[in-house]
User: What shape does this take?
Amino acid sequence: MTFRKLSLVVLLGLALLAGSFAAPTRSEPEAAQAAGTELSFRAPVTVSANDDQTAAEPSIRAARDGSLYIVAPTGLGNVRTDNESGGGDIVWRSDDNGASWEFLGSLDNQLGGGDADIAPDRDGVLWGSGLTLANTTGAISVDKGENWNTNPINSLATVVDRQWIETYKSEPFAFMATGRIADQSIIVSRLERAPGDLPVTSNTVKVSGTDAYQWPGEIAVDEKNDLVYVTYNTGDDIRDRIVVSRMDLNLGNVSTFDVTTTKGDSFDSFVGLDVDKAGNVYTVWTERRPSGEGGEDGRTNSYVAVSKNQGKDWSRPVAVNRGPKTTAFPWIVAGSRGRVAIAYYGTRNRGPSPEKVTYPDRDIPKWKVWVSYSVNAASADPVYREKVAMSSFLHQGDICTSGTGCASGTRDLADFLQIDLD
Assistant: This one.
């Protein structure tokens, strides 16, 4: 894992996700309405104040009071405990819409560092998560991240990977989705807020089927219908699937649905997931579409699909990228009915995958952050607009999506980026 200073592209104009635009009339073409909603961006802001605050794979979330939070892991084995960060999973907060950031230290110190996530509930209580590989760490803060109560055993399984966490309204519990390495299964835990504001796991269930996961995808909670969703993709060499599992708030009545199926070894990253306020469920993923001899003229698109009946049926996948020919690491956030934004890295260079877009007779690929957004994503014919979020590029060359098996210099962007709605 490569550790570096963190920068943030602050998004403006995301009020469109919260329903601040007039609803379309039946006589107004949806494409024309979508064209009238404009998204703009501030210049990138450096979050890490110095090299003692370097980390990777930051997660970002917005609280209801306008506070923004970032958490990022510093590495397993307490490799950074001798400097300012304290090791583990470190946190920043912004109280001025992302213009400046206050470093809050580590939420778990020596009890994490492998992966991190954070989620505020409606009252501003923060739930954080970390990873030691042996188990997942849960943490709770009731004072905006200034202090944390940490429990290093928040999964009723051992040897785990990539945990995601989500809250439900202002209730004293949260949900964590995790990949269990031993049998390559997806498990979901319910964490209770015990006396002393300590997170304690009350239940853990396996939600995946017999197919092993390739990337343990995200978790989302439908607060309208009181449902929990988890997504992932399989790693079959012959037949790959994007899968969504659904359960109730007590982790019962688990149902699993296929979003899409394609030929084997087609997916490149974590599957993103969110639910809009009307209960529509969205998934996003990248899919390789090689063409030509050796695939040099192929594409890797970012796709989105929506379910309007709680995961049972899914729309046809829609490619949201137009400018970039190769994309990586899409992430989605949903607001009111049909309003979503999807962020991803993109380059105009073609190739069979993000791992192979550099060729001797072509310009060196330069990767930027792009955002596609829609105000009618739940309709039968959704319209997406796409904008580049920053003028400069973040990375040049290939992007490796093979985790720790990547060559030096190809995994500088780690494994995902995130976008959130304030």
